[in-house]
Amino acid sequence: MRKFSGVGVALVTPFNEAGQVDEESLRQVVDYVIDGGVDYLVTLGTTSEAVTLTRQERERVVEVIVEHNAGRLPVVIGVGGNNTASVLEDLAGLSYLRHGDAILTVAPYYNKPNQQGLYLHFKAIAERSPLPLILYNVPGRCSVNIDAETTLRLAREFENIIAVKEAAGNFEQVTAIAAGKPDHFLLLSGDDALALPFISLGADGVISVIANVLPYEYSTMIHRALEDEFAEARGIHFRLRFLYKALFEEGNPAGVKAALHAQGMIGANYLRLPLCPVSDALYGMIQAEMRQL
After folding, report:
1. Calpha distance 287→260 (Å, rounded)
2. Which residue among the candidates 32, 40, 165, 181 is catalytic per the annotation?
3. Do 213 and 263 touch, CB atoms closer than 8 A?
4. What is the DSSP letter of 15?
5. Any residues with CB less than 8 A from the CB of 259 and at least 6 apart, and which?
6. Res 11 pLDDT > 70
7. Per-residue pLDDT tens for 96-132?
8. pLDDT (tens digit, 9 = 90+) per residue, 155-187?
9. pLDDT (average), residues 145-159
10. What is each CA distance from 244 to 213, 220, 230, in whole angstroms?
11. Exposed e or buried b per residue across 48-81, where buried means at least 16 C-beta atoms within 10 angstroms of its C-beta
């Protein structure tokens, strides 16, 4: 499953001024990131605002991305939740999963299971999943951390668990996973700003937000790092450091949508409640940084 190394881009879902999915802008973003050199597409992740989409909208978003991608890159589809039985129903019933190459499944949020509960949740998904699985560890959103020992246990016991998107920001945890993971298992950064140092510890790539807006620059950085050309990669990393911060200053995907709107890549800077656009001041900062880059 090395096709999921390198740069996966967590695609936004553009909306028009009326709050409906903007299919034309979505196609434009897909072309832009593919032309920019990303390695695979991720749909229905956090950045897509999937939790505010209806089931019919999620299906249509996947259809638009898959149809327009036309087989150019692998596609990862987000399927997860904090009710294991409901996730299993989705795995059995979501027709659009047939279009995917892998599933990204997030740690259960809100109900805060212990490590055994997390193991059993992902075990049940692995036993039912029609596609390979990428675990998604993001304690800042889920209020629970998948410990390195649990990640490695799952990776060793289930060959269809092929990767983890690690967004805990914990270097000790990343080091433990990198040191102990089986050969088939990929370690992916879930943080744009930490991807370069994570690769130096043995990570295989990143699922990125910033690649929506600067796919060529960011993909070049990651690919150089994976080729052990860290001097060039570090130079790009330093140039992007202010944008890393700005894009997440008022939450994701508010920052990346502001940047895409400033580029003219999406027609409306619209987010669904409870999310809202960034402040005018931050929009101006992002716009200025994009111009400079």
Report:
1. 9
2. 165
3. yes
4. B
5. 212, 213, 243, 247, 286, 287, 290
6. yes
7. 999 999 999 999 999 999 999 999 999 999 999 999 9
8. 999 999 999 999 999 999 999 999 999 999 999
9. 98
10. 11, 16, 19
11. bbbeebeeeebbbbbebbbebbeeebbbbbbbbb
CB–CB of 25/265 below 8 Å?
yes
Q: Does residue 244 have an active-site annotation?
A: no
- What pLDDT score was predicted for residue 128? 96
Q: Are 200 and 221 in contact (CB under 8 A)?
A: no
Give the Cα separation of 187 and 220 in Å (integer): 19
CA–CA separation, 41 vs 18, rounded Å? 26
Exactly one of 32, 40, 96, 136 is catalytic; which is it? 136
- What per-residue confidence (pLDDT) applies to 2? 78
Instruction: Give the Cα separation of 54 and 51 in Å (integer).
Output: 8
DSSP string over 83-118: -HHHHHHHHHH-GGGGG-SEEEEEPP-SS---HHHH
The verdict on whether 165 is a catalytic residue reads yes
pLDDT in tens, 25-35: 999 999 999 99
* Token digits of residue 55: 């089931």
Domains along the sequence of the chain with CATH: 2-230 (3.20.20.70)
φ, ψ at 167 (rounded to 5°):
-120, 30
Say what the alpha-carbon torsion angle 132, 163, 51, 278 is, to the nearest 10 degrees.
-150
Quote the tokens at residue 135.
């675990």
What pTM value is reported for the model? Answer: 0.96
> Is the separation of the CB atoms in 251 and 275 below 8 Å?
yes
Angstrom distance (rounded) from CA 156 to CA 151? 9
Which pLDDT does position 293 carry in this prediction? 87
Q: Show the tokens assigned to 136.
A: 């998604």
